[in-house]
Amino acid sequence: MSDDGFFGRFGGKYVAEILRRPVDELEKAFNEATQNTKFLTELKLLQKNFIGRPTPLYFAENASRENGGAPIYIKMEGLAHTGAHKINNAVGQALLAKKMGKTRIIAETGAGQHGLATAAACAKLNLKCEIYMGEVDIRRQQPNVFAMEMYGAKVIAVKSGSKTLKDAINEAMRDWASNFADTHYLIGSALGPAPFPDIVRFFQSVIGQELEEQIQEQNLKVEALCACVGGGSNAIGFFSSFIEQKEIRLIGAEAGGLGPEPNHNAVRMSGTAAKDGIVHGYKSRFLLTEDGQIAQTRSISAGLDYPGIGPQLAALGSEARIEFTAITDKEALEALAFFAKYEGILFALESAHAGAIALKIAKETPKDKVVIINMSGRGDKDIFISSPVFRPNEWSVFLQSELDRLKEGLDIHDAKSLSSSPSKMES
Ligand SMILES: *Cc1c(COP(=O)(O)O)cnc(C)c1O
Fold first, then answer.
1. Ligand 1 centre and the CA of 85: distance in Å?
2. pLDDT digits (tens, 9 = 90+) for 58-109
3. Architecture of the domain defined by 6-49+86-197
4. CATH architecture entry for 54-83+204-383
5. 118: which residues sit within 8 A by CB, 6+ positions away?
6. Furthest-apart CA atoms within the chain: distance in Å
7. How far apart are CA 218 and CA 319, in angstroms?
8. Residue with the nearest Cα to atom 13 of ligand 1?
9. Which of 2, 13, 27, 86 is catalytic?
């Protein structure tokens, strides 16, 4: 656990007075739950039967041969229920909230992946669920909005500021401050005021614990672990068991976007653009404008464009325990195509950043050591982004024909005539 909520000079608990109580209450409940055998047993069962753990550690034999150098292994988090690692945290925190007697969960979401995982966990655990999402993101991410509503969640459009993730976080904090008696705020990455970075790491560290066993079972000598870094939850979970094993390199891939110019990427650790700041209740490295506002960022992957980074990763980066590197959109797309072609595995665009750096490192590493990628998610969710890149004409014809089909009204049932319909229709 972190000392006082700080990791070196990063972290802390920078919240308004009104949030002191829920934050302290949460800290106490979390510390108790992690010592409680009944809680841990229930969590294990959900991990196994609902999430589908353990996820395999898989030898990418063809990709390794084509790439040359060290063998590449993939930790297949994308096989977890709802398609990514986010469900590990969502299920864990939802269970914790339930133990605390909360009946309502709120969460922020950007691209919708965390909202989706939270909505699924709440459906499973019978909790009321409301998701704050920027109006701009709602428009861009309809497939995930649809899934959240199917899982019974209410999606609340955030119309303030840039109408994206950072505004959704602010709105969720505001809601929590007035409703904490019955509501838990389920943060989606290893960031925010203490104790959230510890809580999220705890629930994501199942990835690293499984990996440590799998490395022993398969008798592997590891050169490097590669993870992509948005807020940092998949990375810290994946790295968690290995931080003291200094012979293993820990590599974090950030969104290099279109390149190094300002606002063209989300490079917080490997470049020179980020500054120390206090945003969303914690101190870390942030991309800020001249006057201290959150800067515009860019990445082809919706999950890697957050302008900050979890405090523990910022600390481990500043101590050079984690090596950060920027991977451009183009490099990520190339890695995506490479693993799809040679392994039959479609990475999430985020995870493709980890794939790209792993390919580079494996090339420079002798064959007796291995490089392991955390495939944080699978790529089905990205079809609206990646398909227009690889097959623009076919995709446009497809979208047009779908529109025509809607207009003709063929095969379309009226949801009101169904015995069970999504939350939106009920409200
Ligand atoms: C959200 C997301 C990420 C980035 O979030 P972290 O907190 O940095 O893990 C990475 N990969 C996938 C598939 C995601 O959905």
1. 7
2. 999 999 999 999 999 999 999 999 999 999 999 999 999 999 999 999 999 9
3. 3-Layer(aba) Sandwich (3.40)
4. 3-Layer(aba) Sandwich (3.40)
5. 90, 94, 105, 107, 109, 129, 131, 153, 186, 188
6. 62
7. 31
8. 377
9. 86
